[in-house]
Write a structure and sequence with these properties.
Blueprint (H helix, E strand, L loop, with lengths): L1 H22 L3 E2 L3 E6 L11 E5 L2 H11 L13 E7 L8 E10 L3 E10 L12 E7 L4 E9 L4
Parallel strand pairs: 6-8
Antiparallel strand pairs: 1-5, 2-7, 3-4, 4-7, 5-6
Length: 153
């Protein structure tokens, strides 16, 4: 009797461990930075946005507005998509927006974005931080998680 209780306890423990580990299963998705910076053409009127570019036509439209700031201009959109994050125009320099990781969950893709301020003296010019990355194409819903790390110490 005591032996069967031990086996029952062990089986329950293994089932619970498997259940809780599967709930948090996730995989980092590799990506390639296409362009990152902080000065856009303010006359172009690029609004603050998180966007997924899924076609060469959309990509060409963006290149026409931003100019050739990208390491690639011809993308195989049957295999890849572009994740773009553009922050609002800021009235000083020293800010950077970075896609830090892209994580694959069972029901979605989560793009983690971090806004940082420089630790030194910032310039007195208008800036608009942006980051564009290329990743493998997915049909999953894509969500963005923004982390604001702009408190200067």
């Amino acid at each position: 009797m005591i032996m069967s209780i031990k086996w029952l306890y062990l089986a329950a423990l293994l089932i619970l461990t498997g259940y809780f580990s599967s709930c948090s299963e996730k995989e980092k998705i590799p990506f390639t930075t296409m362009s990152i910076g902080s000065n856009l053409d303010f006359k172009a009127g690029i609004p603050k946005q998180d966007v997924i570019i899924r076609s060469q036509v959309e990509w060409d439209d963006l290149i026409a507005v931003m100019g050739n700031r990208f390491i690639e201009t011809e993308i195989d959109f049957d295999r890849y998509q572009i994740v773009a994050v553009v922050h609002e125009v800021l009235n000083s320099g020293g800010f950077e927006i970075t896609i830090t990781k892209i994580t694959d969950y069972s029901d979605k893709i989560l793009v983690t974005v971090k806004l940082s301020a420089s630790k030194g003296v910032a310039s007195e010019i208008f800036t608009q931080p942006y980051h564009f990355v290329k990743m493998c194409k997915t049909a999953k819903r894509i969500e963005f998680k923004h982390i604001n790390n702009t408190v200067k110490k």
